[in-house]
Design a protein that fits this description.
single chain, mainly alpha, Four Helix Bundle (Hemerythrin (Met), subunit A), about 0% strand
């Protein structure tokens, strides 16, 4: 979501809340027993709850179905999802550029560390699809590096776009490609 879109959304939300508050005050002029102000209060209470639910969909939560059955890799995946969520939060809440850069650097560094560790385990266990798996890792690093370069140089990519790409890629990769090596590595490495 662009900065302009976020700004417009927040303006609309603010106007809605302000309008509800005015209508509640005016509604009480009809009397404390009139249902209108009480209905409006209920709507006012529901707005932040709905807003929080919408925002929560932007973040990814670890699910047991993501597990590959290897504790060290699952731990890496959880850390990567946490870093992606930090990046998403930085994008959504308009944090300082220094924080965004720090999270980006941590995310790239940890992703490279994880890929190296995972690839080492696959080699150690003679995983037959190692080369194809490594190509996916290399392609992802190249894609993310390109996105980050675009962000740093010209801001043509938003941090939120990078976070959404990473979240989607990682979840799909864990649920797809990573699940394929489980029978080859499980019980042999930790």
């Amino acid at each position: 979501m662009s900065t302009v879109t976020k700004g417009i959304s927040m303006l609309i939300l603010s106007v809605l809340i302000l309008g509800l508050l005015v209508m509640i005050v005016l509604g009480f002029m009809l009397g404390f027993t009139h249902p209108l102000p009480w209905i409006l209060i209920a709507v006012l209470i529901i707005i932040p709850l709905v807003h929080d639910k919408i925002i929560a969909t932007r973040f990814v939560k670890w699910q047991d179905s993501y597990s590959v059955g290897i504790d060290s890799i699952d731990s890496d995946h959880k850390k990567l999802l946490g870093l992606i969520n930090q990046l998403q939060a930085a994008a959504h809440y308009k944090t300082d550029e220094v924080l965004v850069e720090d999270v980006l650097n941590q995310l790239v560094d940890y992703t490279k560390y994880h890929f190296t560790r995972e690839e080492g385990m696959m080699k150690e266990c003679n995983y037959p699809d190692f080369e194809e798996h490594k190509k996916q890792h290399d392609s992802m690093i190249k894609q993310v590096s390109g996105y980050i370069d675009e962000y740093r140089i010209s801001k043509t990519r938003t941090i939120e776009e990078v976070a959404v790409y990473l979240k989607t890629w990682l979840v799909n990769h864990i649920n797809g490609t990573d699940q394929k090596y489980t029978p080859y590595l499980k019980g042999k490495v930790q």
